[in-house]
Amino acid sequence: IKILAIESSCDETSAAVIANGKILNNIVATQSVHEKYGGVVPELASRAHQQHLIPVVHEALSSSGVCKEELSAVAFTRGPGLMGALMVGVSFAKSFAYALDIPLIEVNHMQAHILAHFIDEPKPSFPFICLTVSGGHTQLVLVKDHLAMEVIGETLDDAVGEAFDKTAKLLGLPYPGGPMVDKYAKEGDPNAFRFPLSEMPSLNYSFSGIKTAVLYFLRDQLKEDDKFIEKNLKDICASIQHTLIKMLVQKLKKAARQYKVRDIAIAGGVSANSGLRNTLEELAKELKWNIYIPKFEYCTDNAAMIAMAAHYKFLNKDFCGLDVSPMAKMKIS
Ligand code: ATP
Ligand code: MG
Ligand code: FE
C-alpha cells in the first residue's frame, strides 16, 4: 500500500509518502509571507499553497523513489482549517485521484495530529488520552482505537497556542510568539508574577482571560516604569507559561483520573514547549503515567501525520467520492 498525502489546512504546504505503514518522507514548505502581519492571512495562505503544492508533491515523490503510477491512493486534509487553504489541497488531490484512477481518502487534521504518535516507536496503547495543543485547538481526546476518538474536553474560546501568541504580541515579540516565550521562560522565575487561572466546569478550558489579564497588568506596570517589559521579559514569559501549563495539566490530571487511563500523549505545535514537556515528565514519575511526545517535526503541521491516518483508513477501505468538499469546521469522527 503506497499513499501520497497532502496537508494544506493553514500555513504549511506539505506532502508525504507512506508505504505499508512506514513514512518514507515528509516535505514541508512553511510560508513566511505572514510574519510581517503578525498572524496568518488566509488569502495569502491560499496563494502560497498554490505556488508550493506542486513542487512539494514532486519532491515527495522523487525523494521517496515512488512513482505516481505505483500509488494505491491519494489522501488530503479535509478540515478543520482555513477554507481557501484547504480548497487548494482538496482540488489537487481530487484531480490527482481522477487522473490516476485511484481511491481518494479524506483526513481529519485533528485526528491526524493524534495519529502522529503511530509514526515512530514507542506507540501508545489503547485507550489513551491525548492532549492536543495547537494554534487553533485545545482538546482532551479519549483515543479508543486508531480511528475511534472522543473529545472529552476542549477550549470554549481561544486555543492555548493562541494565548501564547497573543500574550507574546503584547510583549512586542514577533509572530509566532510561542517559541519565543518558551525560550525566555527558561531563564525566568515562573512565580515572579501571578495571573488568574480560569475555572471552567468539567474538562473544558478557557484561555481568553489570560490575554486580558496580561494586557491590564502590562498597562499598569508600564505606567510606573516604561522599561518594565525589557527589564522583566524573562520573568513575565516564565510566569505566563507557568500559568498556561498549570491550566492544561489540571484538566489532564482530572481526565486521567476520571477515565482511569495512564497512557497520556500530547500532540500539536504547543507540545514542542519545553516547560510542558518537563512538567509532563515530572507528572509521569509522580502518577506512574506513560507519556508520549512525538518528534518535533511531527508536532507542527505536516503531511506525514495525514499519511499515517490515511494508511488506517485505507485498511478500512474508507474512501470518499470526487464530490467531497473541504470543511473549515470538522468534528473528530
Ligand atoms: P491547528 O492544528 O489547530 O489547526 P495550527 O496547525 O496552526 O493549528 P500548529 O502548527 O500545530 O497549529 O502549532 C502552532 C502553534 O504552536 C503556534 O501557536 C505556536 O506559537 C505554538 N508553538 C510552537 N512551538 C511552541 C513552543 N515551544 N512553546 C509554545 N508554543 C509553541
Ligand atoms: Mg501552523
Ligand atoms: Fe495543526
Helix/strand order: EEEHEHEHEEEHHHHEHEH
Evaluate the radius of gyration: 20 Å
Q: What's the count of strands?
A: 10
Q: Note the beta-strand portion.
A: 15-25%
Distance between termini?
A: 24 Å
Biggest pleated sheet? 5 strands, mixed
Mean pLDDT: 96
List the uncertain runs.
Answer: none
User: In DSSP terms, counting alpha (H) and pi (I) runs of 4 or more, how many helices?
Assistant: 9
Q: Which structural class do you get from the secondary structure elements?
A: alpha/beta
Please give the order of strands in the largest beta sheet: 3-2-1-4-5
The distinct ligands, each listed once, are: adenosine-5'-triphosphate, magnesium ion, fe (iii) ion
Helix content: 40-55%
Instruction: Indicate the overall shape.
Output: globular
Could you please describe the fold and organization of this structure?
Its EC number is 2.3.1.234. The chain is α/β, with parallel strands linked by helices. The protein is built from 9 helices and 10 strands. The chain has helices at residues 42-64, 83-100, 109-115, 160-170, 178-185, 208-224, 228-258, 274-287, 303-315, and strands at residues 2-7, 12-19, 22-30, 73-79, 104-108, 128-133, 138-145, 148-154, 263-267, 290-292. The strands form 2 sheets. The chain has a 5-stranded mixed beta sheet with strand order 3-2-1-4-5, sandwiched between helices. Helix 3 packs across helix 9 (303-315), helix 4 packs antiparallel against helix 7 and helix 7 (228-258) runs parallel beside helix 8 (274-287). The chain is globular. The model has no long low-confidence stretch (mean pLDDT 96). Bound molecules: adenosine-5'-triphosphate, magnesium ion and fe (iii) ion. Fe (iii) ion (FE) binds at residues 109, 113, 134, 301. Residues 10-12, 135, 300-301 line the site of magnesium ion (MG).
